[in-house]
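Narrative summary of target 7.
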Amino acid sequence: MSTENTEPEQLPDMIDFCLNVPLYKTFYFDKDYKLHQEKLREIFYFADGHLDCFCRECNKESVFHPEHKSDDQHFIVRYRNSEFQHVFTCTRNKNHKLFFLFLFHDWSITKIGQHPSLADLASVEIQKYRKVLGNESYAEFNRAVGLVTHGVGIGAFVYLRRIFENLIEEAHQGEMTTSGWDDGLYKKAHIEERITLLKNSLPNFLVENRSLYSILSKGIHELTESECLGAFPITKLGIELILDEKLEKLERDKKIKEASKGIGDLAKKLKS
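Modeled conformation, tokenized:
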């Protein structure tokens, strides 16, 4: 494919390329490769880097180190129209590996394969959110990640927006039982105004970054598949930060309940 009219694009760092960028997302760079030489060398060698991610075989978080390539100052010219591979080995068990395959072609780089898949890695990573999402929204989160790995960005945005809307409705249902709540006012309000009305019942990150909803809506109605795929990692991160805050509150509330009961029981025991 000719890239004469393709604008050069910001190349991702190697960690992002491996763990977040979906398959077949292509990054073009200027034919004057010296402008990108350091970034390209990092992507091609990644000699001093490592990946922090979940090891499916260990069933634990682990650190993966790369199998090193020998340095070659002319690598861009030498390998410009070829494939190259990165293999990472788990520090817990050297037989556990991650594989990533890239195509370096026509002044562009594309990730064309990986094992385990992004969906496999992400599904393990997001399992912890099931307890705050519930089964239905958790399944939608999984579907969003799965769609992205198959190059479907708009559909993934649909699921992320549904999760966002469900979080707001959950807070709305809680507020409806409080005194002084004006549900008529709420129903007339736009989404960002609703978030403001619910600010005491929503995670701070969601309230402070309420524009995430309009980004997701724009993705569904106006952006291309490619633009949605490019924006997916940061929108997914935004959803995760919202869920992290809910998860932290859930764990804190659980500890408070356990501590209160334990202290009460101990006080009674010491009195007797």
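The longest helix spans residues 225-271.
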